[in-house]
Amino acid sequence: MTRRGFCIFINTFFQGPVPSVLGEENRPVVFGTRLEAEREIAEFAMIRLQQFLDGERDFEDAMTVEEYIVAVDVLPDGSILDEDGNHFDKCG
Fold it and tell me: What is the pLDDT along the chain (92 residues), one digit of tens a residue?
C-alpha cells in the first residue's frame, strides 16, 4: 500500500532532480504535508541568512533558494516515486 507525501528536491548537474533532505540510511525525508516541507525550506533559508549576517556565507549564496517541493508516493519499502515516475531509495 502506498501513501502520499512531499519531499524537498534540488536540481543537480549530473543526476537531475534528486531529494535533498535525507534521513536515516540516506533515505529521502517524506513530509506529511506541503506546509511541513515549506517550513523546512524556510528554516534552511533562515540558517543561511544568519550565516551571512555572521560573515560565514556570501550574500548571493544566502539568498538563493534552490530547493523545491515535489509530491511523491511512498512505497511499502520506504522508497519513493516522484511525479515523473523516478524511483528513489537511498541517496547520496
Answer: 889 999 999 999 998 999 999 998 889 999 999 999 999 999 999 999 999 999 999 999 999 899 999 999 999 988 999 999 999 987 76
DSSP string, 35-55: HHHHHHHHHHHHHHHHHHHTT
Q: How far apart are CA 61 and CA 63, in angstroms?
A: 6
CA triple 48-39-62, angle to 5 deg: 15
Non-local (6+) Cβ contacts of 86 within 8 A are 17
**Is the model's pTM score more than 0.70?**
yes
Cα separation, 30 vs 75, in Å, equals 11
